[in-house]
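DATA SHEET
Item: assembly model
Revision: 1
Owner: S.N.
Input lines:
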Amino acid sequence: MKLELRKIHIKDLAMGNEMSVKNGTLTIDKEAIIEVLKDDVNVKDVKIDIAKPGDKTRIIPVKDVIEPRVKIEGEGNGFPGVSTAVTQAGSGKVNILDGAAVVTIGDIVGFQEGVVDMWGEGAKWTPFSKTYNIVIDISVIDGLDPHTHEATVRMAGLKAAELIGQAGKDVEPDEVKTYEMGSIFEEAEKYPNLPKVAYVEMLISQGLLHDGYIYGVNSQLILPTLLHPNEELDGAVISGNCVAACDKITTYQHQNNSSILDLYEMHGKEINFLGVILTPELTTLAGKFRTCDYTAKLCKSLGAEGVIVSEEGYGNPDSDLLMICKRLEESGIKTVLITDECSGRDGMSQPLADTTKEAIAVISTGNVSHVVKLDKADKVLGNQAAIATLAGGWEGSIDENGVLSCELNAVIGATSEIGYHNLTVELY
Amino acid sequence: MSTQIISNNPTVKEEFQNVVFVEGGFLDVLIKVRDLVYTGHELINHPLGASIRIMFSPYRSIMVGDKTTSNNQYFMETIENSIINYKKHMEVRLVDNDNNEDYRYIDKDLLMSAIREHEMIKNLN
């Protein structure tokens, strides 16, 4: 598969009467987007705003973040099996509005958190304070059940990203990167002396607000499955998860999965990158055992000598992560885990909900319990009431000046377990 | 194979059979499950949710299976670790009682996922 990702650098964002990119300024036609999104009979109202880096704006509660793109050559467009017809993703040429993002908001349940601050302290912790955001607030018709409500908001975000992506159709990119990889046999023949490394990406797969989708298939329904890395970079995987704000993998982060991009960078130089195994994080223990066995079997069948495993969420998924690690290490496969820590406000508690002695190579993407202070915003996009949810974490978490103390838990992408975030690891 | 649902969620009590209703909070449900696991019952779904936010939930529903003749070390460790983790997190946080209806719905939905998974796996055995 060969995929050309062509980045058009977006340096400003404006509302106007057309969809265009001129000299790095993305102009969006708000009414055109609203018209398309209102085609869905379940959508009652759509509000569109923009939020730029540095604006004293808070976006809450964020449901998903999506990168606007358009396929200019090759099969399909957008998110196959979800917002467009099923096609094989992973090949062709894609124009990307790099630096722009569609951010969907809409409270499906009252306890959603998920904050993006575009300025100040809060901005330091989320990668989406640096993107020019088109914020889409979707209200649904009365009486809609929560599952349909979630699907409606999810679909609206994807459709909006596709529509906005069209603005880049005929624009020359500032940067072009090609991702190409043949079959595992071809790559092994090219790089016979390089260690074979697979990437296992775990997805929360547990029910409403806790789901991920692969070509539109709910990952609750799958056995672990093998993808060519290009498929994920080309929209095959999307998020339906809107709890676990700090470590949920947004659709944007799937489209730009840092672990895949880094492994690609090393492919043919230090390692032979075998591909991506998407693994569901199920709720039952028997389901977890089966997933673990099946993941390890796929890694062994591919001849992997090393495996990188990234988690999504905290709590019961820690058991999957460590079970997979134990099984792989016992099979003689060197295993590195990427996860965040839930190690208390002082960082001194046990970081994961489970342990195993085989987990000796673990990369931490940050402590979700770290407390940050968020200043009062001039403008709030979304639901003011959701701020009370953040403030309700503990007694006295909001002071008389409106300064809010919250844990990184609530900040979108703050401790991304695939590494798409602002923190780094220091060795000492 | 019979299953019981250990729950403090009134919606679950109303809509499902085989519910052992716990008058109390999330922790009381965990403790009831621990007692059953120590008397040999199989632990079917993981006692914790998949995010910190679910720990703020006032409600939790967990399935246990038949009583077996021997205790299962893995089940015992899992429920004990879950209790330790729950206590650790809730020492410094407040249960979110402002969104009870939504938490009841989500708890029921997560339970239904667990039931579907369990049925699928059971049918294969």
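QC remark: Chain A touches chain B through 50 residues (CB under 8 Å).
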